[in-house]
């Protein structure tokens, strides 16, 4: 799953989420530098998670959102694939912003291997930087 080629050039700032049932990592980044910065992880579930995510969107005012979608190593979907996609749809509806989905296989493992103090926020950075690198 790669970001759509139709990400408008005027979209410069992004807020990314590494969806999790108990913790959701958050990162901010921009197209110019193609880097991401970790933000405080959301420690909430259900509606509280969505409300906290929407608050971050209000705080950062990004042009678009990026959500990591997990898959099995062979690319097959699993329960969290559907949950992450539902979270992406909910964000799209609640925040009225474009939401791009990114394959986030191994992002947490990569964040831990790189020494991230907060694996969830580190994974959100990896997801966002992967997305940013794919843009023209």
Automatic annotation (TrEMBL):
InterPro entries: RNaseH-like_sf, YqgF, YqgF/RNaseH-like_dom, YqgF/RNaseH-like_dom_sf
EC number: 3.1.-.-
GO molecular function, one term: nuclease activity
Spans through the membrane: none
Keyword match Transmembrane helix: no
One Pfam family, short name: RuvX
Keywords, ordered alphabetically: Cytoplasm, Hydrolase, Nuclease, Ribosome biogenesis
One example of a Gene Ontology biological process annotation: rRNA 5'-end processing
GO cellular component: cytosol
Segments forming domain YqgF/RNase H-like: 12-111
Repressor in keyword set: no
Annotated compartments: Cytoplasm
Entry function: Could be a nuclease involved in processing of the 5'-end of pre-16S rRNA.
Entries under PANTHER family matching the protein: POLYNUCLEOTIDYL TRANSFERASE, RIBONUCLEASE H-LIKE SUPERFAMILY PROTEIN
Matches recorded under NCBIfam families: RNAse_H_YqgF
Protein family membership: Belongs to the YqgF HJR family.
Stated name of the protein: Putative pre-16S rRNA nuclease
């Amino acid at each position: 799953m790669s970001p759509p080629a139709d990400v408008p050039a005027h979209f410069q700032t992004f807020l990314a989420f590494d969806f999790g049932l108990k913790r959701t990592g958050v990162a901010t980044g921009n197209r110019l530098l193609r880097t991401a910065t970790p933000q405080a992880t959301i420690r909430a579930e259900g509606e509280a998670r969505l409300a906290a995510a929407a608050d971050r969107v209000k705080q950062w005012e990004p042009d678009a959102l990026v959500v990591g979608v997990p898959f099995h190593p062979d690319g097959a979907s699993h329960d969290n694939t559907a949950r992450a996609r539902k979270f992406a749809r909910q964000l799209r509806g609640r925040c009225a912003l474009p939401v791009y989905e990114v394959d986030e296989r191994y992002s947490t493992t990569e964040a831990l291997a790189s020494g991230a103090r907060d694996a969830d926020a580190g994974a959100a950075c990896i997801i966002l930087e992967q997305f940013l690198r794919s843009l023209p």
